[in-house]
Each structure stands twice: as C-alpha cells, then as structure tokens.
Amino acid sequence: NICFGLSMAPPLFSSLSKCVSDVLSGFSYDARLSQPISVYSAPLTLKVAQKKADAPATFEVVHSTTVADAKLETTVTGGGDVNIKATHAKLLSNMKLTASTDLGSAKIESEYTGISDMAVKVVANLPSAKCEGSITKELGKVAGGPLTVGMEVGGNASNGKLTKLGFGALYGHGGYNLAASLTDKGDTLKVGCATSAYSGTVAAEVVYKMSKTSIVGTAGYATTLATGEKLKTTVDSSGTAACSLGLTSGPSSVTLCSSMGVDFGPPKVGVKIERK
User: Fold this and answer.
1) pLDDT for 11-42, tens place per residue?
2) pLDDT number for residue 9
3) Res. 219 pLDDT band, cuts 50 70 90
C-alpha cells in the first residue's frame, strides 16, 4: 500500500496525506547547489540558492556530525546567522527528540510512536511560549480498509490564543488511498486520492479555501523511468502545468523543474544540483 507503510505506528498528522503531496508538490523554481567541501579537514556542505535571476544569491555552510547517538547540525548563513540542531532517536525507546536554536530562540520537538496504533508529536517554541501538538490513531479495518484519523492543535501560552486547529483522516481500500483534512482552524478543506497505476503513482486533490471561497483542483503522475530518472508532472484547474525530472549518477543528482500557465507566458524554471 502506497500510503500505509510497514511501520506498526500510524503516520504523524503532517504525513497523513503524504502519498498525495509527494506527487502533487515539491516543485522548486529556484537555482540551488549543494556541494561538499573541506576546511581544515572538517567536512562541510556549501549550499547556494538564487530565487530570482535579478536577485543576489544566498549561501550557507552546514557541518554535520554524530556525538553519542545524537546528530548535530550547525548552519552558518552568509549573513552571519547561526542555527544549531540536535536530533536524538535513541534517547528513549520509540521517541525522537529534536532541539534547535538560532542563539536567540529555541524549538523542541518530540515524536513518540511507542503505542502500536498511535503517533504523537509535541512542539514547543521558546521564549515565545508557542506550543502545538498532534495525535493520530489507527482505528483498524473499516468497510474492508484501514482507517487512520488525527488531530492537531496549537496555541500561545502567553496570551491563551488558539493558533492552530485541524483534523485529518487517511483511508485505504481496493488499491485506492483517500486523504482528507480540515486545517487552518476550519478554513482549508483538502480531499485527495492516490493509487498505483501505469507503473507509477497517480494522485488528485481538491483544495477549498473558505475565507476566499476558492477551489483549486490538481492532478498528477509520478514514476521512475526504466533508465532511473524520476519523473513527476501535474496540471491544476487554472491550466498551469508543471514537470520535474530528477537524474542521479553516483554521488551527484540534478533535478530540473518547469511550469507554464494557460496564457503561455514565460515559463518558471528551476534547477537543483546536489553532490554528496
């Protein structure tokens, strides 16, 4: 099943519609380069990005290492900003703990999958006191297919305001997978479907934004070609078509993206080059 994996725990709330979003999203129209470098024998990764042809490029240097089963990642941007991120997946059984700081604020995330039919995630931001949490639960077989439901909620402890509220569900039956969610405190409704077909994955989704009374439908197809390239293409209800092609050769990969509207104006083009 393309949505329900082999893990005993259900997906996190943010991943309930992953089988749909993996096909319909992820297109980047920036120019990006990721290249490993070495400075005083320290392995680093240089990342360069340019969002517009007439905009200056931005860059950052990333250093990753592992200390006592914890993955440490330090990022320094061209503007001098520093971000430190630590991820530990073995501190407690079935728990993944992530802490990050930009030296002015901190963010702590905890994911727990120790209960076979549940997954819980809690996020706390300091010193803003913004907190959010989500829970998903597998309800077992319903009408012959697995059903997973979830809920997310977030708020600001300093003023008691609700900042996030959402509900979601994932259902699979007969080779089809249906994902639905109501997020943004009831403002955004999404219904999507994905299935395996034509040696790949076919997906479609309808998004209704209640505050704007707008409806956008998108359909797409993703596959891995016989020669190894990863192809993804979509078209939405406004007539905009997008295509992505990923090529990998050894430690190097190149991803090309392009999209064009129904007015046949100048297409958006993006390229990402990554070397590991």
Assistant:
1) 899 999 999 999 999 999 999 999 999 988 88
2) 75
3) very high
Neighbours of 257 (CB within 10 A): 20
Enumerate long-range contacts of 132-141, CB under 8 Å, 24 or more apart.
132/163, 132/164, 134/12, 134/13, 134/14, 135/13, 136/10, 136/11, 136/12, 136/13, 136/16, 136/168, 137/10, 138/10
* 160-214 pLDDT, tens digit each: 899 999 999 999 988 899 999 999 999 999 999 999 999 999 999 999 999 999 9
Q: Contact, 141 vs 164, CB < 8 A?
A: no
Q: How far apart are CA 161 and CA 78, in angstroms?
A: 36
With beta carbons less than 8 A apart as the criterion, state whether 51 and 32 touch: no
Q: Put residue 68 in one of left, alpha, beta given phi > 0 → left and psi -120 to 50 → alpha.
A: left
Contacts of 119 (CB under 8 A, 6+ apart): 9, 10, 11, 12, 13, 111, 112, 113, 135, 136
Q: Can you give the pTM of this predicted structure?
A: 0.85
